[in-house]
From TrEMBL:
Subcellular location: Plastid, Chloroplast
Known pathway: Cofactor biosynthesis; NAD(+) biosynthesis; iminoaspartate from L-aspartate (oxidase route): step 1/1
Pfam family, one: FAD_binding_2
UniProt keyword Flavoprotein, yes or no: yes
Protein name: L-aspartate oxidase
Domain FAD-dependent oxidoreductase 2 FAD-binding: 136-519
UniProt source species: Sphagnum jensenii
Swiss-Prot/TrEMBL catalytic activity: L-aspartate + O2 = iminosuccinate + H2O2
Documented EC number(s): 1.4.3.16
Primary site of residence: plastid
Cofactor entry: FAD
Amino acid sequence: MTTSYLLHGSQMLPLLQDSSAREFARQFSSVHLAERPMASLSISAHLDTLEQGGCRPKAVIASSAHRDVFHPVMKATSRNSPIHEFYGHSQKLYQRNPVDQAYDFRRAARASHNDMHEGAPEAQSHNTIEASKHFDFLVIGSGVAGLRYALAVAKFGSVAIVTKSEPQESNTMYAQGGVSAVLDPADSVESHIRDTIVAGAFLCDEETVEVVCREGPERVRELIAWGALFDQSEDGQLHLAREGGHSHHRIVHAADMTGREIERALLTAVRTNPNISMFEHHVAVDLLTLQDGATVVCYGVDTLDMKKQKVVRFIGGVTMLASGGAGHVYPTTTNPLVATGDGVALAQRAHAVVSNMEFVQFHPTALADEGLPIKPEKRENAFLITEAMRGAGGILYNQSMERFMPLYDSRGELAPRDMVARSIDDQLKKRKEKFVYLDISHKPRDEILAHFPNIAAECLKYGLDITKEPIPVVPAAHYMCGGVQTGLLGDTSIEGLFAAGEVTCTGLHGANRLASNSLLEALVFAQRAVEPSVAYAFQMGGKKAEVEKVENECQHPVVAMDLKEDELKEVLCFTELQRKRLQHIMWDYVGIIRSTERLEVAQRKLSELEAEWKDHLVRNGWKPRMVNLEVCEMRNLISVANLVVSSALVRQESRGLHYTTDFPMLVESARLPTILFPSSSMKTWNSKLVHRMEVETR
């Protein structure tokens, strides 16, 4: 017997117990989400609709025979059918000259905007709202997934990349290790598949793993063609490193700054592409979605232009969600400040299926500032010490210079990240110490400086020479293995919304990500989403009525300009305090080692925090539909934190990144993903200011 789960208030409840659950977990297109509420589908008219009662949706699992009712793009996930069988006109699209492609959708969107300009909602006349912008493809995020996708679809139409900060400020930029791919004749795809599944604690989707591992080498060659410069051996071949969990040398890298090099190469290509427009400092507020029968359809996104302090609406044929992770749900993270779980929260509010949120990866070795000779000023994010250093022979010691990893795992320092992080955590708690040491100084100086120049320079800045001394390290939140559920073509449960990168849960990582598989996954799924995206954008041509409905029914957010200065200051100050409080709740109660009691405490504290925050904003003049950066990020962090805690509570076993003292063993019958369906009683406050997901079984 197998079980899938729904999130029900503060509990996860079993939804289905039969043999089809495992198949569903692998290919969620067998789900039919019926009776979706209009209240959840427009960006700001929710309040009135909800107050009038709204509709109540159901989340039901249908048999696999009903998978085609999900939405048209899901049909393309049929493993034996080429996509043109489902999109009869797509071949014509590909035969057209990209320069001459003027999609009907773009024309319809622009025409509808002009036709109804005078009859638009009153808010549109506000001087803090700009005219809607229309593109064939919208990309939310400017990391490797978003840039790779944008470059591919730009051959077929106009592309807008909406990014929260500067384009390079993404998790990609901070990735040190590299991209894993089978490029050595002594290696094999089968070996890469096996390593991935073992690291993922056998919760990986095996078909996804095979697809990614087989397509990886071609994606690496594409990066090189775009100008990415990777390290080479003396014979001119790519230098392949080895990292924890890998049985072979297969990590393509650019010293210890691989992400930076990939981001540089892709951004260079993007900036020279006339079909791609980059919108910096635009915060995604909410997806624009409407009901279409039994399906939710995405038409774009509302954003806040931080520099102009104006709301900008983007309408597009296809929206690609590539917004990265949620590391800042914890106080110590290797992620940049932009990683606040925006994509998962946006998709969740729009009723997307989300899964495996309990699996938060803590990187074992972030630089421990407390152990440096010269103490840095407070960092925005922890400095990562790459997995590749252990792969190159780095050894972990406690502060008595006793090697400890062989006591926990026969693979020693090359064990997967979940095992290494728990081992370090155990040492710190037993010895009441703040950090351990990672030592690479026994290697030749020139070799260290050649492979780890960035780390060497950072440590030397604070008085530490890594060629002579060990590096103080400590675990830090690093990567979300859960996220928006996607199929093999990057398709989500929302029609017109695709997703790639860390924001997703593709099934590749299972319960724990194998080192250097994240950039690989982003590259593979960004490419796999191209063909169905183009086909869908072409299919959207001529849907003028739908575009008009979006513009008429989806009210704009409102910039918080009407608050008095002291009110706004009070809101921002309290929001910052509550954000720090949330992060410490997650660190103290939902960290590397968990227990049912501590998770329940976290759930209660998060609920209290959310209520206090909401009440404080209202008392200080916050109005429906008001938005600013800090408030948007806070509501997203609350959503993600609640998803992580609720998912962790239901998994009554220890698997991969989720270790609980109450259930310390693996349970074979629990070897299933945790799947969170859309709510049947969605509740929003002040036009999606705060959202709490409740799902009920029917």
